[in-house]
Amino acid sequence: MVDADVRLGLSGSDLAIRDKTFHSALTMTPGTLEAVAHRFLDSIAESGLQGTVTDFQDCNGIPSFTVGAAHVESWLKVAKDHCGYDLLSDCFGVDRLAFKAAHRFEVVYSLYSIEKADRVIVRAALQFGEVCPTASAIYPASVWPEREIYDMFGVEFSGHPDLRRILMPDDWVGHPLRKDFPLGGEEVEFSHNVREQEAK
Amino acid sequence: MQSSDVLAERGSTFPAGIEVERHHDPDSGADTMTINMGPSHPSTHGVLRLVLELDGENVVRCTPHIGYLHTGIEKTMENLSYYKALVLTDREDYLSNLCNNLAYSLAVEQLVDVVIPEKSQVLRVLLNELERIASHMLWLGTHALDIGAMSVFFYTWQDRDLILEIKEHMSGVRTKTSWICPGGLRGDMPSGWYERVESFLNQFPKRMEMYEGLLSNNPIWLERTRGVGVLTPQEALDAGLTGPSLRASGVAFDLRKSNPYSGYEQYEFDIAVGQYGDVLDRYRVRMEELRQSYAICRQAMKRALAMPGAPVRTNDRKIAPPPKAELDTSMEALIHHFKLFTEGYHPPVGEALGSVEGPRGEKAYYVISDGSNRPYRVRIKGPSFYNLQALPKMCEGRLVADVVAMIGSIDIVLGDIDR
After folding, report:
1. Which of A51, A143, B207, B381 is most exposed by smallest CB count within 10 Å?
2. Which residue of A has its CA nearest to B242?
C-alpha cells in the first residue's frame, strides 16, 4: 500500500479526506461527418501522406478511411499524435470474401477522441496472406484485439509482442470467423464417440 | 532466508501429486514459482485463468488466459436474421442484457433508418439505468465478498433480485428479456409495473446509505483498497479502459454525456470522476454512479408516466411486428407478421456502430450489412476485454491477496470477454 502512495506523492492524511469530484460538463456535440473527415485529412496531408487513401466510406456518420497495409501505421500515428484520437475504441477484423472486393481481409481500427467526442475509422485492406504491421507501439490497447484477429482470421501482425491465439485453444486448426469456415463444422464429443474423437 | 531454503527445511509443503514449477534467477537471486489461479476460482468471477509467477507472496508476472467461455456468438449472429440475432445479445455479457440489446438495436436502427417513438426512448433509458443498478449491485456484493466483507453480498442480492422481479413482471423472464429490440420495445409495460419500480426506488436511497455505512469508512475496507492497483490516466487509456474504471483514473469520459443516445441529453445527472485510480476510487466512482442512476430513473419515471398509452414501437411494419389484435382482422398485418418472423428485413448495404455506456464501459456493436436479411459481420466490443488488459500492469509487484481486489475492481464479466 505504501509504495503506491509514495508513487502518487500522497501522505496518509491526504487519502483520508478524499473528496468526491464531479464532472458536470455540458453535453458535448460531436462534429459533423464532413468536419471530422476534413480535419483528419488536413493533418494527414501535413504529414505528407495524401494520396495513400484507397477508399472513403460514410459508416452512418463515422468517416472511414481505407489504406494499404504499408501506410496504416503512419496513419494511426497521425491520428494519435496530431488529431488527438487518444482512445482505441475497438479493433477488429472483417472477412470480405462474399463482397468480391479487391482485398480479402480488413483490420479496422475504431478511434475515439475524448476531448472532441468524435470517432474516425482507419482500416487496413489486406490480400490473403498479407502481413499487417502491428499498432501496438502506437495504441498499446491493440495487443489483445490483434491477437484475436490473428486467432479468428489468421491475419499475421509484424512486430507484435505476443502473437498467440487468445480465445481458441492453442492446438486449434483453422480460423473460425473466416467466411469459408463452416458453421457447426466440429463434431461434438459424447460418450458414444469419445474414442473416435480422441483418435483424430 | 530465501523461500527455497524454507521449503528445503520443511520438506515439500504441497500434497503429493501437485507439482509446482520453480525458477531460480542467478542474476537477481530471486526464487520464483509459477502457479495457476483459476479457471475455477470463486474470485475470478467466472472462468478466468491467471498464470502467476510469484516471488514469495509478491506477483512478479501475471498472464491472463481467456477463452474458456468462448461460444462464437459473433459467428452465430452472422447466420441469423437481424431480428433473431437479438436474443444472442442478451447472452454475451449476461449482467447487462438490456444495455447490449440497446447497443445492437441502435446499430440496426441506423442501418434500416427508422425513427422510434418518444416513449420507447424514455423507457430504454429507464431500463438501462435499472440494469446498471442491478449490475453494480452484483459487482458490489461480489467485490466485497472477495475482499472479506461477507454480509454486503446478502443485502445487494436482495436489491438485484428486486430489479430481476421488475424485469420478470415486464416480460416473464428474469434476465434475458430481449425487451429492447430494433424498432422500439417489445411491448408496453403491464399494469402495476410502474408501482413496482416506484417502490424499488423509494427504498433505494436508504439501502445506499446502508452500503456506504458498511464499507465506505470501514478501516479494513480502506486498508485493502487504498493505493492498490493504481492506474494513471495514461496507463488506463493505453490499456483501452472505458467506463467507471477509466473515470476512476481521472478521465472524464462517459458516452451518456459525450455522445448522448436515446435522449440522455435531456436528463440531469453528473458523472463521478476519481482522483487516484486505485481500487478505492473505482469503488467510490461506482457508488456515486448508483446514486446518479437513481436520479435518472426518477426523471425517466416521471416522463414515462406522463405518456400513458403512447406507442412504444415504430409503426413501420417491415421492422416491428404489428399489434397482436390486428392479426385477427387485417390480412396485411398477418402477412407482415409472417414475413418478419420468417424472412426478416433487408437493410441496405452499409455499416453502423451502436455504442452505449454499459455498466462496465463502452459497449459497442458494429454491424456490417451486405443487403441480405442476415448481418454480414457483427463485432461486439466488450469493455471487459479491454479492461482485463490492464490487470497485469496493476498486479505486478503486488501481493497475491490484492490480485483478488483488483479483479473485482475492474468488474469483469467473462461472457463479455470471450463472447
Report:
1. A51
2. A89
